[in-house]
Amino acid sequence: MMDRVAARRASGATVISLSAGEPDSDTPEHVRDAGVAAIRAGHTRYTQVAGMQALREAVAAKFRNENGLAVEWQDTIVCSGGKHVIFNALAATLNEGDEVIVPAPYWVSCPEIVALSGARVVTVPCGVGTGFKLTPEALAAAITPRTRWLILNSPSNPTGAVYTRDELLALAEVLLANPHVLVLSDDIYEHLIFDGASFHTLAQVEPRLAPRTLTMNGVSKAYAMTGWRIGFGTGPRWLLDAMEKLQGQQTSGASSVSQHAAVAALTGPQDFIARSRGVFEGRRDLMVRMLNEARGLSCAVPGGAFYAFASCEGLIGKVTAAGTRLETDEDVAIALLNEGGVGVVHGSAFGLGPYIRIAYALDDASLLKACRTIQAFCGSLTEGA
Ligand code: PLP
User: Fold this and answer.
1) I need a labelling partner for 61 at 20 to 30 A (CA). Which of 3, 17, 171, 216 fits?
2) CATH code, 29-267
3) For residue 382, what is the DSSP state?
């Protein structure tokens, strides 16, 4: 969709893109300054493969203080982005024929990374009825002797769903009965959680799972640092060692300059996080209200991240002003872009249709304009001939 948005813009069209998964604000100034200072100080050389000790210490302190995990710096790894943490963990452990349970809708990269490793993706549909969340029953039914990993992501991309402590405990019960299953907890949206809710991660709520859980996080979403490419994780040392071995022959240590900036992000003032959470929560309220006012759309209230995942079932079969019959959610996304100038991503790209994912990482005025356009587009659809 981002390519389609770019192509429309190149052809001269004005497009409001609600398709990108990154905060719209700049990296906090003191973090940018730390990056510049690192360059000036000559911190421009290779670092240790698993990351600079100063950053690993900051990461360990983050996991201890924010997540209650008993972690020393040696229990951490730093990679070139959160995606790279996931990639290294799966590539280092999966063999052909292994199975990985991925609740759907999922972040698009998950099944692709699993497939790259030659393993089999076992998707488990998690519809609006369960808040787009995996239930213990569905998890138990999906586990086989070949299951190697379960991937959990909360708050979720693309739905914004957040697992409560009790929901995680219920999943943990199933996992405790299946000691062959590793768990990847993708916590990258940890700080974007709304309505005063608390964030919980699996290894914290059930410490008995910590020896087989990789808790993944990074600075991308929390500190608006997507381009710096720093992600990190904690888990059992055998797994971290395997990931480091792989990383050593692949990218080596992450960018030295970015690692210095990430130390500043994790150890410096944290007010940016609360501010950005407040901004996103306000936008969430605006988006959900306006999407639910659009004829044919229905949107549950997401508890976190910066995505709204709206059912567009009510648009399927309808005909646009330009005469396009909307057969699928991809048709909806394309017509909305071509005829309304608003870029969204179709839900089936995330493994669940007919939905559209709307990223509200844009200023309020643009979001308001985009919502009005979406409402007008939905209102203009007809039954056709
Ligand atoms: N996990 C989820 C669910 C994401 O949405 C993203 C980025 O979009 C990532 C991980 C990866 O983040 P990073 O940019 O740090 O690689």
Assistant:
1) 171
2) 3.40.640.10
3) B
- For residue 63, which of 223, 187, 212 has the smallest C-alpha distance? 187
Task: Note the pLDDT tens digit of each residue in 304-332.
Answer: 999 999 999 999 999 999 999 999 999 99
384 has a pLDDT exceeding 90: no
What is the per-residue pLDDT for 25?
94
Domain 2-26+272-379 and domain 29-267, same fold? Reply is no
Nearest residue CA, atom 13 of ligand 1?
82
82 Cα to the center of ligand 1, angstroms: 6
| pLDDT of 385 strictly over 80 | no
Coil, helix or strand at residue 355: strand
CA distance 347 to 170: 27
**So where are the chain's domains?**
2-26+272-379, 29-267
Kindly state if the Cβ of 320 falls inside 6 Å of ligand 1: no
Q: Which CATH class is domain 2-26+272-379?
A: alpha beta
Residue whose C-alpha is closest to residue 235's, from 48, 46, 93, 49: 93
DSSP string, 30-94: HHHHHHHHHHHTT--S---TT--HHHHHHHHHHHHHHH-----GGGEEEESSHHHHHHHHHHHH-
DSSP labels, 259-306: HHHHHHHHHS--HHHHHHHHHHHHHHHHHHHHHHHSTT-EE----BTT
List the structure tokens of 40. 């000036």
The whole-angstrom separation of Cα 148 and Cα 89 is 11
